Amino acid sequence: MIERIVEMELPAGEKLIIEKNRIQGERLRPDAARLAIVTGSHGDELEGQYICYETARRLKEGLQFLSGTVDIYPALNPLGIDVVQRTSPLGNVDMNRVFPGSPDGTLLEQAAARIVEDLEGADLCLDIHASDVFVREIPQVRLSEDFAEKLLPYARLMNVDMVWTNATATVHESTLAHAMNSRGVPALVVELGVGNRISPEYGSRIVDGIFNVMNLLGMWKGKHSMVGMPAVSTDGEVEFIRASVNGMFLPSAAHNHYIRQGEKIGEIVDVINGTVKQEIFAHKSGLIFTLREYPLVYEGALLARILTGIEEKK
Which of 63, 96, 165, 236 could form a disulfide with 41 if both were Cys (CB 3.0 to 4.6 A apart)? Predict the structure, then answer.
């Protein structure tokens, strides 16, 4: 059932409309669990659109196995999605930096407040993101260390390659996930793929993970896949590789592959002079879980992230 949770008048007769699809089992118990799947807060992150579609499709095919409620919010920033723009066209504001919002604030702050209100009472919230157009990410769950102990059992079942626990100081307090966790609604941040694209293989893996989590919540008795355990990291186990010069980045290492200390990640070249300006090597061994997708780089640009302290899979 499609429910409208936000409807606001905009200039020129337009409206800001945010909707959810509520899918419920045929026989709901009073204590039935509720799962919220949220995505589309950044208009250039389209990976979540496929996940919403595939989750809804599978649920409708197996409704007899569902004993709880699944709320799917595919577009928190519908205006941004319409123009494939990361921020909201309403003031060029990052939608994921206005939570928990305010009933008396700007239009976006009012919308954020209504979203938070609607999510209250959920047993788990999955906030799904893609990367931007610059780097590609392997499927991963990101947790704040403040809430990691409570969230880790769910994160391990999400069928991702890694769980990245971030230090509290690096977590922005105005994100949806932080707002919900602070209100007692467990919220995971899932990240995968690259901006402006859909990676069905990655998305299907996350959907499998969603059904695993639904089984753990006791709301799904149908088919669900067993998954391997992800690597679990902290900030200290992630090496950031950044450009020291401007130019074009040509990777020689592959994304989602193990690299050994001293091996070459790629090089930055000067296209007009035909010279190599910088060669980039791994300082530590580990898994390349982030790799530059967009070749033009400037000094300080992120080229790769390596999850260190793990063994190479044979």
Answer: 96
Q: Which domain holds residue 82?
A: 2-229
| Domain edge (last residue) among 182, 197, 229 | 229
pTM: 0.93
For residue 161 the two structure tokens come to 């390659």
Alpha carbon distances (Å) from 199 to 74, 139, 191, 214: 16, 10, 12, 23
Q: In sequence order, what DSSP letters do the residues of 129-153 get, joined into one string?
A: EE--SSEEEEEEEEEETTTHHHHHH
* Same domain, residue pair 256 and 209: no
Residue with tokens 């337009």: 14
Note whether 266 and 208 are same-domain residues. no
Give the tens place of pLDDT for each residue, 190-246.
Answer: 999 999 999 999 999 999 999 999 999 999 999 887 777 898 887 678 999 999 999
Tokens 């930096």 — which residue?
Answer: 97
314 falls within a domain: no
252 and 160 both lie in a single domain: no
Q: What CA–CA distance (Å, rounded) separates 192 from 209?
A: 13
- Residue 145: which CATH number? 3.40.630.10
**Separation CA 51–CA 206 (nearest Å):** 7
- What does the alpha-carbon distance between residue 297 and residue 303 come to, in Å, rounded to a whole number? 8
